[in-house]
Amino acid sequence: MLAQLRDLEREGLEAARAGGDAGALEALRTEYLGRKGRLTGILRRLGELGAEEKPVVGAEANRVKEALGALLDERAASFASAADAGPRIDLSLPGRRRWEGGVHPVTLVIDEICDIFRDLGFSRVAGPEVETVEYNFSKLNTPLDHPAADMHDTFYLSDGVVLRTHTSPVQAHVMENHAPPVRVVVPGMAYRRDPFDASHAPAFAQVEGLAVDEGITFADFKATISEFVRRFFGADAKTRFRPSFFPFTEPSAEVDVSCRICRGAGCSACKHTGWMEIMGSGMVHPSVFTNVGYDPEKYTGYAFGMGPARIAMQRYGLPDIRLLYESDMRFLRQFV
Ligand code: PHE
Fold first, then answer.
1. Is the pTM of this model over 0.90?
2. Is the minimum distance from the CB of 246 to ligand 1 under 6 angstroms?
């Protein structure tokens, strides 16, 4: 029986050293030391022994039980402490994304427009958003009984003071402060009492343009704008000039670009015309020159005003202008 105990000890210790995880060690403990285990199986036959042998075998059985039990405890503890040690990494957890800011799509478009015009010789300037009626309307040859000056379109802050309804008053500021030649682009916000719907907003960005010198003609304007359209929208983009009316330009024109979404075939974005209006424009009215102290006999020039939000909608295929105002990160993140 002593030999059986030693065999059991040797096998047990070997198996315990090889046990690969806590579960395997627990199974060994049951197999060797459990109530119905191998050690109990041997000790059951203790009664067969004589009075002298019994205590010897009993002591040896206790020694084997303790030795094997100790090794199993030690091995199990090493697994537990390995599991506790160090960072627990759950590889199935989704990663944490770093929060990134981005440039608003309208700002992207404004910067790109101004960059193109800088290459064409235009400086970038700014003007006040709170204007007098004089600059917003009168200097621009717009009588106060013109529909544009109506209370329904204009935010009046007080008598004679308004939120500018367009960036055109900056034309007057620039010409009053600089002698010709003048070539500027003026990005900025404008305000109108329009209902907020899919294609209108009460506060919106504009980019004004103005070029004045001796001998500037409508042909210069057409060439400059066509070049701008090719650079901004691509070489295949077509430009169309349509007669229009503004009090501060004569003649006046609206500029259309072949729809970027349907490539001119007609779609809901261009109301099935194949064209998208991108700006109002024209040759600066002689009265405006007189109002700012330029000699209308000597100087000519062109001016234009475009809506970068509309252009952003065309460029990015946006169905609703309100997307540009809602600060929804799921939308804005696309423009990082
Ligand atoms: N100010 C005009 C508008 O807001 C656009 C425009 C600018 C037209 C310059 C002609 C010349 O509609």
1. no
2. yes
